[in-house]
UniProtKB/TrEMBL annotation, chain A:
Compositionally biased region (Basic and acidic residues): 157-178
Biological processes per GO annotation: intracellular protein transport; SRP-dependent cotranslational protein targeting to membrane
Biased composition (Polar residues): 195-209
A GO MF label: GTP binding
Domain SRP54-type proteins GTP-binding as annotated: residue spans: 593-606
Descriptive protein name: SRP54-type proteins GTP-binding domain-containing protein
Renumbered residue ranges of the record's region Disordered: 125-312
TrEMBL record, chain B:
Protein name (database record): Signal recognition particle receptor subunit beta
Keyword check for Ribonucleoprotein: no
Residue ranges crossing the lipid bilayer per the database entry: 32-52
Gene3D superfamilies xrefs: P-loop containing nucleotide triphosphate hydrolases
Compartment(s) where it occurs, according to its Swiss-Prot or TrEMBL record: Endoplasmic reticulum membrane
Family: Belongs to the small GTPase superfamily. Arf family. Belongs to the SRP receptor beta subunit family.
GO molecular function: GTP binding; GTPase activity
UniProt keyword terms in alphabetical order: Coiled coil, Endoplasmic reticulum, ER-Golgi transport, GTP-binding, Lipoprotein, Membrane, Myristate, Nucleotide-binding, Protein transport, Receptor, Transmembrane, Transmembrane helix, Transport
SUPFAM superfamilies: P-loop containing nucleoside triphosphate hydrolases
């Protein structure tokens, strides 16, 4: 059952909740949703899972950007409620009509909601039934089809009328069912839905007229063309395939003319049918994917051709539009601007996945909004993106290490920082830089050489220690790094050292034994700060590195609430010119801030991340 | 194609201009002068109104950490006791209105422009948009969950108190200890002392930062002395309130002190 449905403004005022549902939610799923999903530019996702003690909720949401409203539905995770998306859309539509910014109470909406909910539930029920009914005739049809294999097509007519009779009983599902029973006749292949649906359309015409085999054969090709449309219809009705439906809504409009384009390719169509028939069931999806990818490439070509045309036509109208302001932004309007922006982000070395997600989230925040006068769509989108980027890069937690150090000092404990990362990113070098920076602020520092793996690592650290004149704790090689770190911290506590900087061996994110060792080190010593050292040079791999490090630290940890990465140290920042995307990728994927930026070879080359300049560079 | 269209358009425009000039020439000069004078006067008047208005800002900024009760306070000030609860804000609430408790009063009251800036740290950059116009700031503190958030509260307060737009214009600030209806809430005095202590620590660590770091424009307090709110250049006061039960008279008073009716 639906647990709760809320309507609130972006400002945070709850306008309406369903009182009938009134179940007290465990924990605070809504606030968690807002904080960890909507405000983190992840609103492009389909749903959000919330775990509280004794309850797992799934939350779905939708925005009304023009009015600044948010609609959230909460339900138990174990129930797969199919009508929630529908219900949210309906509630959004209805509520937008009664909404008035001055009003804060909408008790009269209860009645409307009750109706909407009934409607949605009924529809879901129907869909469920339809699915069951659909499945049954397939079997029947198969039997019939097999029976008639010998009898040939003559019996087809009779059968068809029978099938029609059945179908009428079943009301709504007539069309589909027709398709099923009939399809099994003409195309002797059994029960594959792809082909079945293909022929669905022919039935209507052949119902009245005589059954013409040759015509049918001809039509078979045509029928296949129709598959695209029919398939898409089918998937709309089929709640299980909601996700794919969503994806497609996107390129729905451009894809439509494309379907006509397939006209000359009849042979291909035929081939497709056979393939589908052989595969059965699932193949519908596969095929659709193929078609859509085809259409995409074609679309690109088309787009190139069409561009000059639209430009010619659109010059005055776009000018006019920019002056007058457009009524409501639609997804299609945003598409070109978002694509350009995504490409731009990717040229700045932002991981593709992240650029994509960001664009989706920005689109979600703009669709339905009124475009201001004297602006172009591109600048609107860019402004929204800039805001989103600033929001992401602004640290969520305090990055004032010195204050934390002072706080630890008061408790007479050393402040422990662990440097982790893949091989060769500059952990030791930047550890020395951090040590130098801390020394400048009159904090006593100790290094712990816990890289007991790579030869020369301890010597390297010793050299740094000598130059900076700070103590180093080392136990040579082949020791358990976790133990070395532990002893180092004990030593620091004895000496009253303020900060312990722990150097670890570089490890690839997929190396399970080494990751386990790292997890142990962190669990055993419970450091105050786990600093991930990452190269600014990295592109798509940034996502993989950070997510796997976090994942492994969480999975391999023995404690119930594992420590994850608290902050990021971005190295080699001086080598990348304007390709600063790694900073964005890393922050987005881990949710932790960039605490330091290493930008050179000398000890002084350590900076704080300048959010504004990064955003500026990213959008330049 | 495009160029042709443009040419055509230009031609038409030229004709219109021509017609316009001809028409203007037919009007007797005194009328023209009169029209010009009216135009200039109106523009000047509008400009004056703009300047006059700006000199007396009526913007009140509600700020503080997330979950401290800013949105509740905002709607309490606006509508009195009528709403069904709030969730974490994703955007600022803004409104120009006559405070609810004054709505029964007779006479002309100047409405206050109240802005509730979200407390979530990712949205704090929004604060910079509103601070330059602020007539006064209400900094809301959760008196119930005060100690766990102490350092975050102090840091945010420190940031606001050292902002150039606040210091230069000496914008008065009220530390509003919210949720005092609860039994376990901390007292005003305790909160003030803890905040002063924490800011003192911040002062030490912040002044130690290098110049390249996030530079705060001004330093707080008097060097060599323990920090106290009385050392601030702008006036900092502290008050108790409860947004949920509606005991917000001190906040209302503060707002009315700085946004004259």
């Amino acid at each position: 059952m639906l647990e709760q449905l809320l309507i609130f403004t972006r400002g945070g005022l709850i306008l309406w909740t369903c009182k009938e549902l009134g179940n007290a939610l465990k924990g605070s799923p809504i606030d968690t949703l807002i904080r960890s999903c909507l405000l983190e530019e992840r609103s492009g996702l389909a749903s959000f899972n919330y775990d509280a003690a004794g309850a797992g909720y799934t939350l779905k949401w939708t925005f009304h950007n023009e009015l600044g409203l948010v609609f959230v539905a909460v339900y138990q995770r174990i129930l797969h409620l199919l009508y929630v998306d529908d219900l949210l859309a309906m509630v959004k539509r209805e509520f937008a009509e009664v909404y008035d910014p001055k009003r804060v109470e909408y008790s009269d909406f209860d009645e409307t909601f009750r109706q909407l909910r009934k409607e949605a539930e009924a529809r879901a029920e129907e869909m469920k039934k339809a699915k069951q009914v659909n499945n049954k005739p397939v079997n029947d049809g198969r039997k019939q089809g097999q029976g008639k294999k010998v009898g040939g097509f003559e019996g087809g007519n009779k059968n068809k009328s029978e099938a029609n009779g059945d179908a009428d009983d079943n009301g709504k599902n007539r069309k589909l069912e027709n398709g099923h029973s009939n399809g099994n006749h003409h195309v002797v292949v059994e029960g594959s839905r792809g082909t079945v649906v293909t022929n669905g359309k022919e039935n209507e015409s052949s119902n009245t007229g005589a059954f013409d085999v040759s015509k049918l054969q001809k039509r078979r090709g045509k029928g296949t063309k129709k598959t695209d449309t029919v398939v898409s219809k089918g998937s709309k009705e089929d709640p299980k395939k909601k996700i794919t439906k969503k994806n497609r809504v996107w390129d729905d409009s451009p894809a439509a003319p494309k379907l006509d384009f397939t006209d000359p390719v009849e042979e291909n169509g035929n081939e497709n049918v056979e393939v589908v028939a052989a595969d059965q069931g699932e193949s519908m999806m596969d095929k659709e994917e193929i078609v859509s990818s085809d259409s995409e490439s074609e679309e690109d070509e088309e787009g190139k051709d069409a561009k000059p045309d639209t430009k010619k036509k659109g010059w005055f109208s776009s000018m006019f539009q920019s002056i007058a302001g457009k009524a409501n932004l639609e997804k299609a309007d945003l598409e070109p601007a978002l694509k350009a922006l995504k490409d731009r982000l990717m040229t700045k070395n932002v991981a593709e996945e992240i650029a994509e997600k960001l664009c989706e989230s920005v689109a979600a925040s703009l669709v339905g909004k009124k475009q201001a006068s004297f602006t172009r769509i591109f600048s609107t989108v860019q402004a929204a993106m800039e805001e989103a980027l600033v929001r992401i890069l602004t640290p969520r937690r305090s990055i004032d290490i010195l204050r934390d150090v002072h706080a630890a000092k008061e408790q007479r404990k050393p402040y422990v920082v662990v440097f982790v990362g893949v091989n060769g990113v500059g952990k030791s070098t930047n550890l020395a830089k951090v040590a130098y920076w801390l020394l400048q602020h009159n904090v006593s520092v100790m290094m712990a050489a816990c890289d007991t793996f790579r030869s020369g690592a301890v010597e390297q650290l010793r050299t740094h220690a000598r130059r900076l004149q700070i103590p180093i704790f080392e136990k040579g090689y082949e020791k358990d790094p976790a133990v070395v770190a532990k002893e180092a911290i004990q030593e620091a506590t004895r000496n009253g050292t303020d900060v312990v900087l722990v150097d670890t061996a570089g490890r690839m994110q997929d190396n399970e034994p080494l990751m386990r060792a790292l997890s142990k080190l962190i669990y055993l010593n419970n450091p105050d700060l786990v600093l991930f050292v990452g190269e600014a040079l990295v592109g798509n791999d940034a996502v993989d590195q950070l997510s796997k490090f976090n994942q492994k630290l969480a999975d391999l940890s023995t404690s119930p609430n594992p420590r994850l990465i608290d902050g990021i140290l971005l190295t080699k920042f001086d080598t990348i010119d304007d390709k600063v995307g790694a900073a964005l990728s890393m922050v987005y994927i881990s949710g932790s801030p960039v605490m330091f930026v290493g930008c050179g070879q000398s000890y002084t080359d350590l900076k704080k991340l300048n959010v504004k300049s990064i955003v500026k560079t990213l959008l330049k | 194609m495009q160029m042709e269209g443009f040419e055509q358009w230009k031609e038409e425009a030229r004709q219109w201009v021509q017609q316009g000039i001809e028409y203007a020439l037919q009007i007797p000069p005194p009328q023209l002068y009169a029209a010009a004078a009216v135009l200039v006067l109106t523009t000047l008047l509008l400009l004056f109104i703009r300047l006059f208005k700006r000199s007396k800002s009526n913007t009140v900024v509600l700020t503080g950490l997330g979950g401290s009760g800013k949105t509740v306070l905002f709607y309490r000030l606006r509508d009195g006791p009528s709403h069904q609860g709030t969730v974490t804000s994703m955007g600022p609430n803004e409104g120009t209105f006559i405070l609810h408790y004054e709505s029964t009063k007779k006479g002309k009251i100047r409405p206050a422009h109240i802005v509730d800036v979200p407390g979530h740290s990712r949205l704090r950059t929004k604060l910079d948009d509103f601070l330059p116009q602020a007539a006064c700031i209400v900094f809301v503190v959760d008196a119930l969950e005060f100690l766990p958030n102490l350092s975050a509260v102090a840091e945010y307060l420190y940031d606001i108190l050292t902002k150039a737009s606040v210091v230069k214009k000496k914008v008065p600030l009220l530390i509003c200890c919210n949720k005092t209806d609860k039994v376990t809430a901390h007292t005003m005095e305790f909160i003030r002392k803890q905040l002063e202590k924490e800011i003192e620590k911040l002062r030490a660590s912040r002044s130690g930062m290098s110049e390249a770091d996030i530079a705060n424009d001004f330093t707080l307090g008097i060097p060599g002395e323990a920090f106290a709110f009385t050392h601030c250049i702008n006036k900092v006061t502290i008050a108790e309130a409860s947004g949920l039960t509606g005991e917000i008279s001190q906040v209302e008073q503060f707002i009315r002190e700085h946004v004259k009716p």
